[in-house]
Amino acid sequence: MQSSRRGFVALAASSALASVVSTTARAADPKEHYGMVVFLKGSEFFNWAYAGFQDAAATVGATTELQGPADWDASAEARAVDQLVAKGVKGIAVTAGDADTLIASINAGLKAKVPVLCFDSDSPKSNRLLFVGTNNYNAGVAAGTAVAKLLGDKARIGISRIPGLDSINHRVAGFTDALKKLAPGAQIITEVNDEGDLQKAEPVNTAMLQAHPEINVIFCGHGNPATGALAATRNVGRDKEGPTKVYVVAWAIDVPILQGVEKGDYGMTVAQNPYMMGVQSFLELWSASHPTQFDSMTNPGFGHVPTADLDTGVKMLVKGDPAIKALMTPPKL
Amino acid sequence: MKVLPRQLFQNVIVVQYVGLVVVTLLTLFGFQATFGNVLTGANLEVLAMNMVFEGIMALGMTFVIITGGIDISVASVFAFAEILVAKLMVQAGLDMVTAIVITLVATAAIGALNGLLIVLFRVHPMIITMGTLLTLRGINLAITDGHSVSGFSDVFLFLGQGKILGVNVPIVFFGIAAIILGILLGHHRFFRQLYFIGGGERAARLSGVDVNRVKIIIYTLSATLAGCAGVMAAAKYGAAHWAHGNLAELKAIAAVAIGGANINGGSGTIGGTVLGVIFLAVVHNAFVTSAVNTFWYDVVSGMMLLIAVLLSRFISLRNARALLVLKQGKMDQLSETYKS
Amino acid sequence: MLQVTAVSKSFFSNKVLDAVTFDVRAGEVHALVGENGAGKSTLINIIGGILQRDSGTIVFDGKEVDFGHPLQAMGAGISVVHQELSLVPNATVAENMFLRREKRTALGLNDWRAMTRAAADVFERVGIDIDPNALVGSLSVGMQQLVEVAKAISIDAKLLILDEPTSSLSEKEIDELFKVINDLRRQGLAIIFVSHKLSELFKIADRVTVLRDGHLVATAETSAIKSEDLIRMMVGRQLGTLYPPHASAIGDVVFSCKELSRFGAVSDVAFDVRRGEILGLAGLVGAGRTEAMRALINADERSSGRFWLEGDEIQIHDPSEALARGIVYLSEDRKGSGLFLSYSVAENIGASTLDHYADRFGVFHFSALRKRSREFIAKMDIRPPDETARVMNLSGGNQQKVLISKALDVNPKLLIFDEPTRGVDVGAKSLIHARLRELAESGVGVVVISSEMPEVIGLSDRILVFRNGGVSAELMNRKGEVSQEAIINNAVYH
Question: What does the CA dihedral B318, B320, B322, B324 come to, rounded to 10 degrees?
Answer without folding.
Answer: -140
